[in-house]
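hey so i finally got around to running the thing on that chain from the lab meeting. sorry it took forever, my laptop kept dying and i had to restart like 3 times. anyway pasting the input first so we r on the same page abt which one it is
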Amino acid sequence: MTGEERRDPLASRPPRTARPVDEPPEAAERPPGLLRRRKLLGRGFLVAMALLLTVNVATAVRERGGEFAAATFGIVTDGLRRVAQALPGAGEVRVYRAGPVRWLANRIAGPVRVGLQVGHLDAGSQPEELASLRYSTGGHYAGLDEVSVNAAIVDALAARLRARGAVVDVLPATVPPRYRADLVISVHIDSNPDTSRSGYKSAHFWPARSPREVQLKLQIDRAVLKATRMSDDDANVSGNMFEYYAFNDRRFEHAVDRGTPALLVELGYLSNPADRRLLETPDALAAALEDGIARYLASVGRVPDKW
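ok and heres what got predicted. didnt touch it at all, straight out
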């Protein structure tokens, strides 16, 4: 040994900080920001799962006899049982919003708004993009004009819906650009040289612009055919009905907004004696349409079942 003092090689190292026994080695090295982000992601995932569960649990199926099943968190088992019972041969399927959610959505949407178009009314005033329809004035048979019958039915239907608290817009042949409402019904009457042809038919734009148009057609068709006992004239639905200008928002500016379900109805034939007798009582046809509209609005949760 020389006269130099021996040095401990470990003496220059900084002392180690004591670590709890149960703390994993990597935990001490994680930056605080990373931990916070992971916690936030975990909570966000749980919230998303809870929302998804709410949407699925809030779906129910209408049972036979007109009762509907409302599945909620407290009665998930009962809701699933009702769904299983209702599916085979069930009369109809509907989407149901849980009470508070439906109440909030309807409060935000405001009162029900319905657009009722009088087929061919003021056709001569069509805008330039629809100039070819200015001479489309509707059917005529034995002194009776289609426009007059259309207007009488729409007036009766508008009065009925307003009595329920709905806002009703009576529309002429020209629809306001991108018109929006809860639904639109375009009322028409047919006519044909063959006086034996009769019955009711309807059409939404093809292909349907939204699933709700299919549901609207289903409810209106059921109500009208049941109330009037008219035959189903679906075989005579024309291409013009499937491509009705007032619903063709891709081609025309003056058309119903894509988000608004719309249906064109042909309520019989002026040229058929039996249909004509029914057309002379417009309030009966208005009552049938009103019933279909009410059933549709209830089926999509826009109004209570007893609206």
